[in-house]
Structure formats: C-alpha cells, structure tokens
Amino acid sequence: MAKLSLFERRRRRVRTALKSNAGGRPRLSVHRTGKHIYAQIIDDADGRTLAAASTLGGKPSGANVDAAAQVGKDIAAAAKKAGVTTVVFDRGGFLFHGRVKALADAAREGGLEF
Predict the structure, then answer these.
(1) pTM for the whole structure
(2) Per-residue pLDDT tens for 2-18?
(3) How far does CA 56 lie from the centroid of its chain?
(4) What is the full DSSP assignment across the chain?
(5) How far apart are CA 90 and CA 101, in angstroms?
(6) Are 65 and 99 in contact (CB under 8 A)?
(7) Residue 102 — φ and ψ, nearest 5°?
(8) How far is CA 56 from CA 32, 44, 59, 62, 102, in A?
(9) Is 1 a residue whose pLDDT tops 70?
C-alpha cells in the first residue's frame, strides 16, 4: 500500500476524532483550493448534504479571507433554513488558520454552534 501524504494522514486523523465525538450532529465540512472555498453540512447518518455554500459563481469571488467569511455567513443562513443549529467542524486536512478560520468564525457569528 502506498504511503499516505501528510495532508491525507491529517485528514483521516481529524475525521476519526470527529466521528467519535459527533454525537449524531451533522458535520460542517470545509474544502479549499487555490481559487475557491467550499463548505457543506453533511448528515453522515443519512449520507446526504443538508446545506452547501461556496465561492463558485456567487457574489463572493476569489479565494481570500473576505470571501471565506462570506461563505461562512452563507452556510450559517442555509443551515438555519434547513433547521440545523449545532454541527461539528470538519476542517479536513487543512490547518485552522487563515481562510478556514475566517469561515468558521463567520459561521459562528451567523448562529451555528460548534
């Protein structure tokens, strides 16, 4: 079996810890690329996405901290619409700073609890 990258090992470690501490709450998953940032709220029990937001084709364009904060506000609004108030934050293999932190802070300000 091929050796896993540092990113993949970190992603698996984070996901494993979340599954043990989730307590049935949906997961707020964040993915970032060089051009965009994506967030979605996933119900792992049913295997479906409850809400999603990203910088693709929307008003916040680009991959900067301001766009990430707008995506955080958008995902919080979409979660409220879907009836979700508490989630567990899945940062994936990304470190919790910069755009990921801006998204998380904006989602908390928007009313999500995690």
Answers:
(1) 0.91
(2) 788 999 999 999 999 99
(3) 15
(4) -PPPPHHHHHHHHHHHHHHHH-TT--EEEEEE-SS-EEEEEEETTTTEEEEEEESTTSSS-SSSHHHHHHHHHHHHHHHHHHT--B-EEE-TTS-SSTHHHHHHHHHHHTT-B-
(5) 12
(6) yes
(7) -65, -40
(8) 12, 24, 9, 9, 18
(9) no
